[in-house]
Design goal:
There is one protein chain. It is built from 12 helices and 14 strands. The chain is α/β, with parallel strands linked by helices. The strands form 3 sheets. A 6-stranded parallel β-sheet has the order 4-3-5-6-7-13. Helix 1 crosses helix 3.
């Protein structure tokens, strides 16, 4: 189930209507009127704001449409049980520029958000909603994000969640709005944002722990070429060595995200060799490459696990297809999203939250201790 913010057609027809909307909304957001509280009568609001009945009624209709207020016939108006500033989360997804439009990290986030917020919106459960926004670059970033900025300025979001570093939004209202909790997945701290960091060391512990317990010693890698190969290759060689394994420069194959099918050719060439010239383990370090890379194993005539073991990256719980048995290792998008929501809600309550929270790696296999 996916829920999205939709701008309502009701216009704020007068400065006085806008004034009333702003005043009541601020009283709700500041907890002067908490969820479930009864609001003053229309007659009382007319006196308080020196406004006509029609103007107050239009203001209340606007607040009802925005989700802040509900009215019970014959009883008056109340603050909604789940007003948007406490229950509506904005998920700002990275712009997907791949030819297939299916970068698996983004797919996993969208799938998990639809599942999570759908389940938490069921009757009897805790009401939470989500809206999806997409990063769009341009000379004036703010101009491309009017809906998001309108939601922020209308105080209709409990917080913002960024699956990637939101560097492109620096200096815009998206990052400058006060009292709006923001959480981002990032490899480095960000001013004004609570950061979730994926723990790479626990990832390698799980990968090499599995391979070590399987008796593997010669490991090859297929990676996305986002990092320069002259940087990532020495890193992988030294990391394998720390865990008592060996690799070689030409056993590290980098594939462009725009052409993941090239991973099949790369793996087929890796496995053409015989004996000790061929790796006995393969780590597919990006889930976009898993279908093609495992197809390369089949094309090379290699057997799993007789000839080699395979570790395939996964954004849990949303694995990509594999043509051979593979141990999945990566990070839980489910845990990451739940942590982000918890941080936002704790910030809303005024609780202390660390600037950086570490997300440990997750795998289908829990090995014995492997010391680095």
């Amino acid at each position: 189930m996916r829920m999205a913010l939709s701008p309502h057609s009701l216009a704020q027809n007068s400065p006085k209507q806008a004034e009333i909307v702003s005043a009541i909304r601020q009283q709700i957001v500041s907890s002067r009127f908490p969820p479930g509280a009864k609001l003053p009568t229309v007659a009382r609001m007319c006196v308080l704001h020196k406004a006509s009945i029609a103007t107050v009624q239009r203001a209340m209709e606007y607040l009802r449409n925005e989700g802040f207020v509900h009215t019970m016939k014959g009883e008056g108006s109340y603050v909604a049980a789940y007003p948007p500033h406490l229950s509506h989360f904005g998920l700002v997804l990275p712009f997907d520029s791949s030819p297939s439009g299916q970068v698996q990290y983004i797919v996993a986030w969208r799938n998990e958000a639809e599942r999570y917020f759908g389940e938490n919106a069921r009757p009897g459960g805790r009401m939470r909603q989500a809206s999806f926004f997409h990063e769009i670059a341009g000379p004036d970033v703010a101009a491309y994000h009017r809906d998001l900025i309108a939601a922020i300025e209308g105080q209709k979001l409990a917080g913002l969640i960024f699956p990637n570093n939101p560097y492109m939004f620096q200096g815009t209202p998206i990052m400058q709005a006060p009292r709006l909790p923001r959480v981002a997945v990032s490899a480095e701290p960000i001013d004004g944002v609570r950061v979730l960091m994926f723990d790479g060391e626990t990832y390698w512990q799980k990968v090499f722990g599995f391979l070590s317990n399987r008796g593997r010693r010669r490991v090859a890698f297929v990676v996305i070429s986002l990092n320069r190969i002259e940087v990532i290759t020495p890193y992988l060689i030294s990391t394998a060595k720390r865990y008592g394994m060996t690799t070689e420069e030409d056993w590290v194959q980098a594939v462009d995200l725009a052409g993941p099918n090239w991973a099949e050719n790369a793996v087929r060439l890796l496995l053409k060799r015989g004996g000790n010239d061929r790796p006995d383990a393969l780590v597919i370090a990006d889930d976009n490459l898993v279908p093609a890379a495992t197809a390369g194993i089949v094309a090379a005539g290699a057997r799993v696990p007789e000839d080699l073991d395979v570790v395939a990256h996964c954004n849990f719980p949303w694995p990509t297809q594999s043509a051979v048995p593979a141990m999945r290792a990566g990070f839980s998008i489910r845990k990451t999203l739940e942590t982000a929501v918890d941080i936002i809600e704790r910030r809303r309550r005024g609780d202390d939250v660390p600037d950086v929270s570490i997300i440990p790696a997750h795998s289908e296999y829990e090995p014995k201790d492997v010391h680095s």
